[in-house]
Amino acid sequence: MCRRSAPNDQPLDRGIVWRLCEELEPLVAQLEAETNQQFSVVRVREKRGGLRVYVNQGTDAICERIQAAEEESFLVCEICGEPGSRRNNRWVRVRCPEHGEE
Ligand SMILES: [Zn+2]
Fold first, then answer.
1. Residue 92 alpha carbon to ligand 1 centre in Å
2. Could you tell me the pTM of the whole model?
3. Considering the domain boundaries, does residue 101 fall inside one?
């Protein structure tokens, strides 16, 4: 479900999003079994240098994982996943030293 929902044409925190999807999979399976409703990621976007993940339903455990990924996204480069910091040139972006000027 995450592969379908994640944008394929941009490298938006891909490592974090993939890892998040793997972490969520067992939690989602449990949630879907309990609610009989399909879980879906409504939207994945970048907001002020960080990741934002919107879902149609979630448990506390799911929300915790998503929040952790969102917080982690402020610390890694959006292009390569290396440690980075927020940079304010035109937009707020998280970039490592190598990708800082892009
Ligand atoms: Zn980088």
1. 15
2. 0.74
3. no
